[in-house]
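ok trying again, last paste got cut off:
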Amino acid sequence: NCKEFLYLNEVTGGGKVHKYEINPDGSLTEVLNNGNSWYPGTGTSELSNPHGLSSDLNGFLYIGATGSGGPQRKLNCDGGVIPQSEFSIPVGGFNTGSIGNTFYTNGNLYEPDPIAAYDFCTGDLLGTICLDGVSESGSFPSWGFYIDPRTEIMYATDRLGGVWIFTAADLNSGTCVPQAFTLPVQGSRGTGGITTDELGNIYIAHTGLPTYIIKADASGNILAQTTPEDA
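nice, full thing came through this time. structure:
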């Protein structure tokens, strides 16, 4: 009887993070905090550019920050932001994830090792990984980053359709991961967020003009895509 929730970061809306309850019929009901968005419930935000969200084993949530300035912030389940003195990851990051007591982020966006692992309790850097052949080195090379909670396999994308697949062991060894495949993209800009389903299929958002979602198998074969729209 657990409820399911969806979180949405409003990057250009003054640092708002919205929370929605997913109803049995698939519709969404926004969960408000003091009549405002789930965060900030008071209307005054400490997250200037929220982006990406993950959680830990205790139900705390972690929200990234666009750009390289950071910092990443920790929130409780009611939308209260934890002081930086209690949790501090110094870099920004477009997306975050966690396995056990380790926090992962594509935080070093302008560096050759864009994916990093940190200890949740101490904030210590545990390891980094580079993406071999990234197409836009120096310009948000690892925009998309996702950890499949079922398999703990990690996925990353660059802005031009490149996809990398790796594990925590790869990251902790400091290796450079070869590109798994490249998906063709249309129009301006390119690929952004990435996620998977229980069958191992991959879904990638094309975030420019036109906008659409690509569905591919783990080998990069395109299975379907939504109708491209200039929206």
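cool. The first strand starts at residue 5 and ends at 10. The chain is about 5% helix and 40% strand.
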